[in-house]
Amino acid sequence: METNVISKKDLLELTGISYGQLYRWKRKNLIPEEWFIRRATFTGQETFFPREQILARIDKILNMKDDLSLDELADMFSPSMSGISLTADELLARNIVSSTSLEVFNVFLGSLRTFTFQQALYAYVLEKLLAAGDLSVDEGGGLLQVLASHYPKFEGKPCELIFMRKMGISTFVLVSGSTEMYFDSGVKVVKRLDLANCIEELKGKYL
Amino acid sequence: MQNENKNKLDLIFHGAVNATGGVYNKVDVQGYGKINGDVECESLHCAGHVSITGDLIGSSARVEGNASIRGKVKMDKLSVYGQLDVADDLNFTSLKVGGNVKVQGNMAGEDVKIHGSLKAAGDCEAEVFRANGAFSIGGLLNAGRIEVILHGSCEAKEMGGEHIEVRRTGYSTLGKLLKHFLNNTLSVETIEGDEIYLENTKAKVVRGNKIEIGPDCEIDLVEYSTECKQDPSSQIKTLTQR
């Protein structure tokens, strides 16, 4: 049996939740349909889940369900853009971006007074990469350009940002979820970011 | 044919009429109507025959005749006493099926009441699912509370929820005579829930916390965690506690 999936039975035993809870969360879209992997086994069909993702998600739901309603949780997990907007000061105050990243953002996308959720996401991704030391300030332009001009095309579908370098030249690629990609040996993949995760983190800071 | 009412128009059919889609206040079909395109309306009443080539969005609909919708349907309150065919997904808050509803896609809503027959090719999600008729769900029937009284044959690929209850009807005199010809059973591959009570059910797997298998069930595997009761007239091939 593969180790990166977990059967429904093992999941319930491990987390201590009941079938009813699992089905309720599925109905409320707290657990995405794509995670229910159906496979034939000797007892008939069984449902499996991607191990890491489902365990992290259930952990989050269990921790937060006392503070937030299920609908609020669903909003947080949904990859669609919520209609909230924030001002630059609020972004700074909530530690979503640092003033350095905000300056870089302003240089490339112009100085904004209020940020839509999408723009806040771009700034947040920029901040993440800059703070981790993966990205230089000059490279920020390439990042923001690819996000601003291509991210809306995904329309909330899961996608991944890949940041790679070859011979010191940086490239950014946005790919739709779970695509397999192979590079030549000269390419160094600096960072792969699942944007759905970024959205979740960002929404976590919003609330 | 169209009266100005506040800002939105009413669309009223008497006789055979072709109309274009759009935003309406009230759509009332007494004869035979065909609407090209998407329709958004406050209320839809169909006593004749209506076919819509696009999506239908609105707050309440009552179908006493025959309606077929080529696109998606999104209705808060939907009651069907005649026949409704939906070629795509169906979303609702409350759905009452007195006649016959067929959905080619998935259906999701809060409250489902069935007195007639429901057929869905995909999944069906609801908070409360009460059936006193027949249904066939091609995918997963997922509801907080599932209460089924079996009339005719019911089937689903999977069922899941907190509380699942399946009972047969009390037989009438006619029912007793026809008992062996009528196939009043529920056939399902897997049933998973917290509390499960079953009668007249054929299933491969039943999993849950508290399970009671009532009369006339045939189940290959029962997995329970706290409690399991079994009626002697039922067959369970394997019973395990986890």
TrEMBL record, chain A:
Pfam families given in the database record: DUF4004
InterPro entries hit by this protein: DUF4004
Taxonomy, superkingdom: Bacteria
Protein name, per record: DUF4004 domain-containing protein
UniProtKB/TrEMBL annotation, chain B:
InterPro entries: BacA/B (IPR007607)
Protein origin, superkingdom: Bacteria
Family under the similarity heading: Belongs to the bactofilin family.
Protein name: Cell shape determination protein CcmA
